[in-house]
Amino acid sequence: QFDQSDYTDADLLMLPGGMPGASNLYAHEGLRQAVLAQNKAGRLVAAICAAPAVVLGQLGILRGKRATCYPGFEGQLDGAEYTGELCTVDGNIITGEGPAAAFPFAYQLLSMLVDEQTSRQIAVGMRFAHLMEK
Predict the structure, then answer these.
(1) Of 48, 72, 113, 118, which is least surrounded by CB within 10 A?
(2) pLDDT for 6-43, tens place per residue?
(3) Distance set, CA 115 to CA 111, 120, 121, 130, 134 (Å)
(4) SS3 assignment, position 77
């Protein structure tokens, strides 16, 4: 259950995808308000799989942005340019394509929350970085 506490100090709000999970997230008024406030403040908002379309798209915060999502949901991105990339960053909005994009998505978020060098070091140590270089 989503706690309706004050999230104004959150560096990042990240929404997982999947269905009906993404629809359940959108159905929660407290979550919708927290995401809208986070975006309005210019803080990081991330979503992966169906959540970019089902939540962020329906909230209208993707209009004029570049975004990705699980194929088949791109029609719900509401004014966003669909990239089809594993991970797309446009300003404070980070979107991921689907389950296979979880690692690139996570390392992108880490680079934004900490720094690129730390993210790269962890990706190398976890034996992920070389997979993206082929």
Answers:
(1) 72
(2) 788 899 999 999 999 999 999 999 999 999 999 999 99
(3) 4, 9, 10, 19, 23
(4) coil
